[in-house]
Amino acid sequence: VQLQASGGGLVQAGGSLRLSCTASGVPSSIKAMAWYRQAPGNQRELVALLRSGGGPSYVGSVKGRFTISKDNGANTVSLQMNSLRSEDTGVYYCSVHTYTGEYWGQGTLVTVSS
Question: Is the pLDDT score of 46 beyond 80?
């Protein structure tokens, strides 16, 4: 299984970034695709999750600013991040949840300067 994430970078507070992640070689049906992040010194936290056939869910701090979407045909999940804040800084990981396990990408760094 390979998850290839892209789109991280340096942005000023108030700006936008779009992360994308494409999954290949997934051995079973996908239950959900998600984005997590880990800020320096903090534990990894779930940012947004999109269940197959269901709606999205978000951590409270990003509601109204971030949007998760999925291209079913390409097994690609994206995270549109608007109105970025310094506290959004961290390494963002995409994840695929299947009926046989969870798979993780390598992480992409997002740095928001204030």
Answer: yes
pLDDT digits (tens, 9 = 90+) for 8-40: 999 999 999 999 999 998 877 889 999 999 998
Of 83, 81, 76, nearest to 105 (Cα)?
76
Contact of 65 with 82, CB cutoff 8 Å: yes
The four Cα atoms 77, 84, 6, 96 give a dihedral, to 10 degrees, of: -30
What is the average pLDDT score of the chain?
A: 94
For residue 23, the number of C-alpha atoms closer than 13 Å in the C-beta half-sphere is 28
The structure tokens listed for 94 are 């995409």
d(CA 111, CA 86) in angstroms, rounded, equals 8
Residue 27 is which amino acid? P
